[in-house]
Structure formats: structure tokens, C-alpha cells
Amino acid sequence: MNEQQLSNKAAHRAKVLRSLYPHIILWIGIVIIIFPIYFIFSASSHTNADIQGAPMPLGIGPHLIENYRQALLHGTQNMGTPVLTMLKNSLIMALGISIGKIVISLMAAFAIVFFDFPLRGFCFWSIFITLMLPVEVRIMPTYKVVADLGLLNSYAGLILPMIVSATAVFLFRQFFMSVPREIAEASQIDGATPMQFFSHILAPMTRTPIAAMFVIQFIYGWNQYLWPLLITTKPEFYTLLIGINRMMSGADVQIEWQIVMATTMLAMLPPVIVVVLMQKQFIAGMTETEK
Fold first, then answer.
1. In a domain? residue 109
2. Of the chain's two ends, which shows fewer C-beta atoms within 10 Å, N or C?
3. Residue 6: what pLDDT?
4. Is residue 95, in this structure, part of any structural domain at all?
5. Residues 164-188, mean pLDDT to the nearest whole number
6. Does residue 42 sit in the same domain as residue 142?
């Protein structure tokens, strides 16, 4: 081989290696993310003795269906609430928060953009500035109001304090500002009322931002921990995250790790399903909003 051929082969080898680096890094990242999930899934298929043994087997054990049935229908010994009940509570809370935030934010953004009233800008910035307030700053006054209204241990107490979102108001406001004013004027000429314009024209145009916001707010509501921890003292209103915490807090009872791991896997499923089913609408909603 002459020097030119050797140089070409070295350049080709270097090009192949450069193209492999991103894939290698990507696979390393995937393994780092997936392994803890697989570890939880594997642990949920073994007995408690196997999990506490050293080393814990990493294969899929023979008690998978048994452990998930026990978790769904009975729960653990130190907390007899079935995971099905907690799953229902988490689902009601997440759906209530996401739908409530979308409806209220749509109406607020519609009023701010399409209605001319005094202090309109002040109202918007008063809503927007609440983003600067941490949840911890507002949580005790909110708890006092909810307690005075008798909403502790209730779905209304879980949902109502969380359904106002400055982020959603800002997103919908930005989208509504991109809607040509001629559309609103044309609807007025046709004799449509403001609510008819909103429901028949504006809302269908906002489907993709609504889908994107639904995914974000569903995950936000599903992952709520501090607020349900404060206002729920009855097991029948525990959400999944609170239930997992209670399962691991038994002082005198041995923790049933196989049930805890099965519950953790079940807690991951609904957000994953929502993201997978709505990923196209989510991506379209975020990109259209940026435009």
C-alpha cells in the first residue's frame, strides 16, 4: 500500500469512530436511565427475602403476578389500602388539576387578549408574578383556607388549590396574541357572541397547545407530594406517592419491599402512557407556541 491509501484508510477509520461516539454516549445514557427502572421491576418479581439477600438476583423472579395482585388488591400489612384505591385517587387528582388548569387558564388568557378593560396589563402581570413565589411560601395560608372550608381529606381539597397556573395563562396568552384580529372581527360581523367565538373558533385552533399543556399539567398533578401529604390523613384519600411513603414508614412491621417496588412500577405507568399517546400533539403544541 502506498501512503495515499494508508492516509485514506486512517481518515475513514477516524470518520467511523467520530460517527460512533454520539451513539456510544447515547447508549450509555440509556443504560444509566433504564437500569434503575429495570432494577425496580426485577425486585417487584421476587420475595422480600430475595430482595434483602446479598446479592439480590437481577433476573425476573417467579412471583411477578402474585406481587402485583397483592399490591393492587390488598397493599402491605402496615398499610392495608389497596394500590387500586391510591391509583384512583392519583388519577382523579391529576386529571382534575390538568383539566381545571387548562379551562381556567384558557378563560383568563381569552379575557386578557380579546377584551379591553381597565388594568388589563396589571391583571396579567399580577398572575405572571406568582411564578416567582415558591410553593412553600403559599402552602400554609392555602392549608388554612382549605381546613377552614372543611375540605381536608376530600378530592376538592386535593384539586381546587392547584388549578390556577400562571404558566398556562402565559402560554395561551402568547398563542392567542398570534391569532389575527380579523378572525375576531369577522365573527363579530357574523353576529357571534364572545363565547361562541371562543368555543367554535378559538378553542379548536388551540387544540395542540391544549394537548401540550395537558401533558405537562398531568405529570405535575400526578407527581404532587407535599400538598397531598398535608391534607390527607385518611388512607382512602392517599395518592400513590403518599402510599409509597407510608409503606416504608412502618416502625414495628417489616417493610414488604416487593410490594413497594410493584407499587413504584405502577406509579410510573400513567405518566408514561400519557406521554406516549400524546407525544405528537405535545411536540406540535410546543413548537407552534414558540412560533
1. yes
2. C
3. 61
4. yes
5. 85
6. no
Q: CA separation (Å) from 37 to 22, 66, 224, 264, 270? A: 23, 20, 20, 9, 15
In tens, the pLDDT along 47-101 reads: 888 888 878 888 888 888 998 999 888 888 777 789 999 999 999 999 999 999 9
| Arithmetic mean of pLDDT, 134-149 | 86
Q: What's the pLDDT score for residue 291?
A: 44
* Number of residues that this document lists for the chain: 291
Domain containing 124: what range? Answer: 83-290
Q: State the DSSP string of the chain.
A: --HHHHHHHHHHHHHHHHHHHHHHHHHHHHHHHHHHHHHHHHHTTS-HHHHHSSSPP-S--TTHHHHHHHHHHT--SS----HHHHHHHHHHHHHHHHHHHHHHHHHHHHHHHH---TTHHHHHHHHHGGGGS-HHHHHHHHHHHHHHTT-TTSHHHHHGGG---HHHHHHHHHHHHTS-HHHHHHHHHTT--HHHHIIIIIHHHTHHHHHHHHHHHHHHHHT--HHHHHH--SGGG--HHHHHHHHT--SSS---HHHHHHHHHHHHHHHHHHHHHTHHHHHHHHHHHH-
Total domain count, the chain: 2
CB neighbourhood size of 236 (10 A): 11
- pLDDT band (50, 70, 90) for residue 290: very low
The residue among 52, 73, 94 that closes a domain is 73
Q: Are residues 18 and 159 in the same domain?
A: no
If asked whether residues 88 and 211 sit together in one domain, one would say yes
Single residue among 73, 99, 123 that ends a domain in this structure = 73
Q: Same structural domain for residues 66 and 104?
A: no
- 78 inside domain: no
